[in-house]
Amino acid sequence: MKSKKSLIVLIVAVLVVAAAVIAVILNKDHSKGMNAVPASNTVVYDTSYKNYLDQNGYGGTTLEASLQIDLKDYQTTDGMTAEIQDSGLVTGDSGSITWTFTAQEEGFYNLEIGYIPQQGTTSDIQRRLLLNGEVCYDGLEQVVFKRFWADEAIKSKNGNEIRPNTNEVYKESKIFVEDAKRRIGEPYVFYLKKGINTLTLEAIKEPVEYTSIEFKKAEKAPDYATVIDSLKNQYQVYAGENIVGQAERSEGGTSYIEKNSSSINIQKNYSDPLLYPYHPYKIKYNTIGANNWKQPGDSISWDVVAPKEGLYEITFKGRQSLKRGVTSVRRLYINGTVPYAEMNAVNFDYSSDMDNYTVSQTDGTPYLFYLKEGTNTLTLECVMGDFGSVINDVEESMYALNQLYLKVTQITGQTPDKFIDYQIAKKIPEFQEIMSTEEVRLNQIIEKLVAITGEKGENTSLLEKMAVEAKGLAKNPESVIVEVAQLKENISALATWLVNISEMPLELDSLILSAPEAKLPKAKSNFIEGAYYGTIRFFSTFFAKSSQISQSESSSDSNTIKVWMVNGGSATNVQSIGREQAQIIQNLIDEKFTPETNINIDLQLIPVDVVLRAALAGNSPDAVIGLNQATLQDFAMRGAVVDLSKLEGFQEATDKYYQSELDAARYLDGIYGIPEQADFMMLFTRDDILKAVGAKVPKTWQEVKDILPALKKNNYEFFLPNASGAPNFYPSLVYQFGGDLFKGTGNDYGIASDLGTDAAMEAFKTYTDFFTNYGFNPNVDFPTRFRTGEMPIGVVKYTTYCQLEVFAPEIKGLWSFTTLPGITDENGQINNSYVLETINSAILNTSDRKEDTWKFIKWWTDTETQLQYANTVESVMGTSARYPAADPEVIKRLPWSNAELTQILAQFEATEGIPAVPGNYMLTRMVLYSFNNVVAEGANPRETLYLNLKTIDKEITNKRREFHLSVEE
Q: CA 701, CA 831: separation in Å to the nearest integer?
């Protein structure tokens, strides 16, 4: 038996060694294994732009003439502010500015605009461009001027690197106006008539200073083949050692890094020990980009130092490992100019491992690039390349199919009866033709995708499925009755597919300047190296604390306070906190709070249910942040948290909040938490559909009822949340009708429920009537139906904006959100109150460091700290993680547009906060029971609610006695 075991060990050892040898052999040529091959650079126009060019007779050339606009000769409207300064014309973030100018020659021009960003939010500067009073094509609805950012130097603490702050760089830039989605690959052209013309720039977001505006021809980059011989005659081909610059830090050959989006961040990557710097378990930021560098127009620039003037090969070490079947495309600039036409779209193919991407021709021969001696700037900008035409075609196909789907549901409804002859072909005569056209187009798209990626796979399967369905429906239109649900599902899947295919992530570790045929540094470790470090990393999980965020070596020091962050489990579902957010807070603490106060923070990420158990066991921290409102109120009623209103500086720390937010943290005459986040509901509308059916955005619930016939006639639906999904909706209606949830004032508030009043009863009947009498569906996925257009209007949390902005690009510009409908009072004013939900910071009563802990809470909830945290979270995690700040001043400085911000603040001001009431959970529970009885079983609203009031009051009385409070006799 012993010899048998020895034999097995020997066999395993041989296999391991063999695998290692094979890995080493395979790894020898890996450094040149994948090349960044240019795309075809085919120019593709979307329909509106193509129609504009065709209507004006564009022949593919622009005029050589140039036309400089006098910046001082302007007119402003709609509150636009403008001021001439030495460097240009500074304009505000709202309203429009118009210049009138004379064109001496009729024809097509490109448009170059020079600008300097002004202090604002982290958002791109956005403008709507009108020529002679018209938006000539869709792309001019959103002209983007990028901001510029640079990271501070990376610092370390106890061997762990700290993510650096990102600072904005204010400098002049000149850009030719092009599509923000980077699908065309060249600047837009504009047709100017001879004589007087006007150019208008309407502010969408952010102030900006214009330094120049000129209609001129954009020079096109030459083909490589036409200029390389000339370059070789002028300059020597570099023959020295490799110059390796780090992509994420100024080290090696890299002297400076700049990016045009604060979302592009450095990353910690443990996948390969050859990454620099590397540690198997400590934090080392060794790459840049990845999933945070995927949006069109986002770019990174590196200043690299060339030892001598000459022609160099350029290699980027990195990977595109997040999108299988997708090729990430970048435009390459050298010192601000695209050197060759082929560099307008350089492909970085999918690779699960780190690789050396040498910029090469289709036959594998590397390109040579001229670099001057000293500092040169290399820039990679995310563009769509050959995928641009695919995305345009799919968007147009999806739009056509979705419009057809809506026409079908206008006839059949969401659940057609298979026994009814709806006469689809007769009522929608274009049905067959559209389906046939889309079947052909989808098959052509599949062919394009295969030509780009070289394979059929997950990116073509959905298109094939949709093409087959379109073909079948074209043959038999009446079969759509049984296909409606599948058609809707496929269209929704196409929208998601568009989001995925439009994202082009790329992660880079380093960039290399080299001589032809030079041996490049190995890109990937071999089997033995990977196994060695992988083993260390595995065993580190047994001694590295996952809940410990701070790296302080003095967590038990008398000068250290313990702070717990609640990890998820939020009853309010505002924005849960994960390890990435926790690390951001820790960085802020290390950079700001501790140096200023000499107070160390032991920050730990803890599940919400642990907080309660720890408090009961007497093992609680000094402070808790990220605590949901319900848990905070429970703690307050049980004396587990400190009454902050009695502490010095409370008034100064809370003056900035709305009263509703402080009321939500109130119990009796004390306030036990400082709000961090606040969420509330607003009205979301598909403006395109409402306009088509002639419905106005409702301001009152009566106006909601008034537009329902127009919606129902076209089989559209209005969305209201049910009592389970939005327990605060009915209480909000009670306030709108002028009622209250509880009786009593002062410390007697909450002595009994107040739902027996006419106001509360009428609110409940109004709420349930929408479901029983008007047919509202209580259980639907609103965001999905909003995207398809089935539900063009509905009430949801305002943070749904972030979800739709990211995951529904196909309806961008077609929707908006506004304040809730309300009830008109006796003075003619509309009461549109909503009961908000909050996330709070609190101090535990068990803390023996209350004074220092209060300093931390005040610092953490300070406007500047909250703003820096909010901006960093969004830059790291994207728009979908935009922070629902409780501080109105923070909201004003987040990257909302002017129109969006106006609506958010208007609803925020109309919020209500419900103080802690012992037994309040029974009110929520019995309202839910009543709602279900009425909606599901057809019970009488008033009678059902009335019968549950005794249960509510009984529980309130019991709880008030438990807490030694007065009770209703």
A: 11
Between CA 595 and CA 600 the distance in angstroms is: 9
Residue 347 has φ and ψ, to the nearest 5°, of -90, 135
Q: Is the Cα dihedral 206, 211, 214, 216 positive or negative?
A: negative
Residue with token string 């390459």: 332
CA torsion through residues 634, 637, 638, 644, sign: positive
Q: Measured between alpha carbons, how far is 864 from 866 in angstroms, rounded to an integer? A: 6
Spacing of C-alpha 121 from chain mean position: 15
Residue 104 tokens read as 């001496």
Please give the angle made by the CA atoms of 618, 667 and 673, to the nearest 5 degrees. 65
Tell me the chain's radius of gyration from C-alpha atoms. 31
Q: Is residue 557 very low, low, confident or very high in pLDDT (cuts 50, 70, 90)?
A: low
Helix (H) and strand (E) counts in the chain? 27, 44
- What whole-number distance in Å separates Cα of residue 378 and Cα of residue 384? 19
Q: How far apart are CA 434 and CA 335, in angstroms?
A: 48
Q: Is the peptide bond before 727 cis (omega within 30 degrees of 0)?
A: no
Distance of alpha carbon 804 from alpha carbon 145, whole angstroms: 23
Distance in angstroms (rounded) separating the CA atoms of residues 224 and 237:
16
Could you tell me how many residues make up the chain?
A: 969
> The tokens of 805 are what?
């902005």
> Nearest to residue 866, comparing CAs of 884, 851, 842?
884
Residue type, 602: D
Segment 127-160, tens digit of pLDDT: 999 999 999 999 999 999 999 999 999 988 778 8
Cα 342 from Cα 145, distance rounded (Å): 25
Asked if residues 88 and 107 have their Cβ atoms less than 8 Å apart, the reply is: no
Q: Are strands 718-719 and 793-797 parallel, antiparallel or unpaired?
A: parallel
pLDDT at residue 581, rounded to an integer: 85
Q: Which two tokens stand for residue 665?
A: 């943290």
Which amino acid, residue 913?
G
pTM score above 0.85 = no
Tally Cβ neighbours within 10 Å of residue 791: 25
Alpha-carbon distance 213 to 202, whole Å? 15
Terminal CA-to-CA distance of the chain, rounded, Å?
85
> Predicted confidence band at 34 (pLDDT cuts at 50, 70, 90)?
very low
